[in-house]
Amino acid sequence: MWLQQQLSIRAKTRGFHLIDNDIVQQLPQLQNIDSGLLHLFLQHTSASLTINENADPTVRADLEQHFNTFVPENAPYYQHDYEGPDDMPAHIKSSILGCQLTIPISNGQLALGTWQGIYLGEHRNHAGSRRIIATIHGE
């Protein structure tokens, strides 16, 4: 079985956000999959998807701090600044972290590890809602 659907994630503040529940709520078909894969593709160039710690919110804060230090705003060599000082750093962060994930599905559930969660990395100060194309393949 193949299924493809566009998901919508409401606008988030800048930072890293757990979105597991947003995804699962919009994909009730997951419950019917015994064994399969969920592929998530984020249709934006200034946000990212990644998997990391789901229990301690300080991990998300530390990731945001690290990436803001690692990829600073207003670097003197940035040429692309049409949409403000957070624009080019957002593109770089998106390229580093990526815009897609593939997650196994087992017995109707995402087969994430005990302490794993799906993060949306929102790298813009004033972003809108985000679209994710979800593709399920399984039986």
Question: Helices and strands in order, then pairings?
Answer:
Layout: E1 2-9, E2 15-18, H1 20-26, E3 35-42, E4 47-53, H2 57-70, H3 87-97, E5 100-106, E6 109-110, E7 116-122, E8 130-138
Antiparallel strand pairs: 1-8, 2-7, 3-5, 3-8, 4-7, 5-6
Strand content bin = 35-45%
Can you list the strand order of the major beta sheet?
1-8-3-5-6
Q: Helix/strand-derived class?
A: alpha+beta
Unreliable spans: none
Distance between the termini: 6 Å
Bin the helical content.
10-25%
> Which radius of gyration do the C-alpha atoms yield?
16 Å
Number of strands: 8
Helical run tally: 3
Structure description:
The chain is built from 3 helices and 8 strands. It starts with a strand and ends with a strand. The longest helix has 14 residues, at 57-70. The protein is α+β, with helices and mostly antiparallel strands and 139 residues long. It has a 5-stranded antiparallel β-sheet, covered by helices on one side. Strands 2-7-4 form a 3-stranded antiparallel β-sheet.
